[in-house]
Each structure stands twice: as structure tokens, then as C-alpha cells.
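Weekly puzzle thread! Below is a chain. First person to post its structure in C-alpha cell form gets bragging rights.
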Amino acid sequence: MGKLIGALLGFLSGGPIGLLIGLGLGHLFDRGLRNASLGLNGEALHEAQESFFTTVFTLLGHMAKVDGRVSEEEIAQTEQLMDKLGLSADHRRRAIDLFQQGSRQGVELESLLSGFLRNCGRHPNLKQMLLVYLINLALADGQVHAAEEQLLRQVGERLGYSGSAFEQLMRMINAQNQFGGHWQQWQTQRPAAVDELQLAYEALGVESGISDRDLKKAYRKLMSQYHPDKLMGQGLPEDMIQEATERSKEIQVAYDLIRRQRKSG
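Winning reply:
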């Protein structure tokens, strides 16, 4: 739009040469607007990245300790997460330090979350990604313990999630995880079973009676929420983008499963 308006104004004021100048200025305007829509830059971006990283791994340690002790299984799960993310050596050392700090008594949860909201709170996608990391760790052993759920709900409420919105996110993440790591199984042309289809609808956060148009809108909204460039522009550290990438794949597989079933039905 910027190029179009710039070219038109340039042509009206300066003919063909003005058109070229206007086109160039319009392009710069469009690029600036696009970058602004992606998120932050400079110092603000760095502060958001630091805040997100610190909050995630401190809370992971805190959640591991919330039931009274940090188990070997929880430590192993966190190490697997670090391996999956592909953290740099420096980030891995910092992540371990933050996890250990979080697992100690006396973590000031309100202060930690206030700092996160100050640096990252204007981006709902980052708040959602924070909960995704925490919920994934809680689900890693196949069940969410009462103390873990209480902490998750407390964090979710502080981030602005209603009880129903939090529960829906929990269901979506749990369902999306079922599509992870087995792409070939889900991408075959065989008819989907009823329980598989229900799982796919839950992964997208929609009911089975949704129209094709609204289904596509829900799918596109989710894919936008986990778009790597958008998340990094808002403050997600570059070496933590793998989780969003995996989440996008899971959503894509669930959506494709529903579309195939609808076309064949």
C-alpha cells in the first residue's frame, strides 16, 4: 500500500521521475511498517529476549520443586528440553543456573512475572509460549500433578488467562503433542478413526461441527501465533524457536487430517 500511494503521489507531483522516487519512499515505509508489526528492535528486543529466557527457566525450576523435591526425572526432562531447543553453550549454562535458582525456596513469583509482563506482556503470543513451555514440562511424565496444576493456573491467571481459556490451552497442547514425532503415521491416506479426528479438533481448539471457513480461520490464527519470524521479532530468543516450529507442524498435521476426512466424507 505504501508503494502504491507513494508512486501515485510521486507521479502526480513529478511525473515519471517522481513516480520512481515515490515508489522507493513507499517501499521504505512498507518495510518499516512490516518490521513494526513483527515486534521490537534494538534494546527493547534484547530486554524482551532476556526476560523471556529468564522467566522460562526460573519457572521450570520452580515448578519442578513445587511438589517438595526435584526428581531425577524432572532434571532429565529439562535437559531433554535444552537438547531439543539446541541452546548455545552460553545459554545452556545460564539455563541450568536459572533452573537451579528457581528450584530453591523463596522464588518471588510475583516479581518474576511482573518483570516478564513489563518486557513481554504486550505480545499475547509470548505469554502463550511461556505457558506452552511450562505445560509441556508438566505433561512430560504423562500427568499433571495437583501442585503443578495449581502453579500453572496461578501463572495463567497472572498472564490474563481466564479459567476456561487456560483449560482450553491445556487441552490444545495435550492434543497437539499427540501429533508430534509421527508425521508419516498421520499423513497417510487411510480414513481417520473417530478418536483421531476428535483429537485433531481439540488440537485446533474447535468443535467438530465448525464450518470449513471457520476451521481455516482457526488454523491460520494458530499458525500465525507460532510464526517463527513474528515470535523472534517480539522477543523469543532465536535458539528457543524450535518449540514453536514443532507446534506449527503438529497443528498442520491435525488440520490436514480434518481436511482429508471432510473431503472424503
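Puzzle host: Confirmed. Bonus trivia for everyone else. The chain is about 80% helix and 0% strand.
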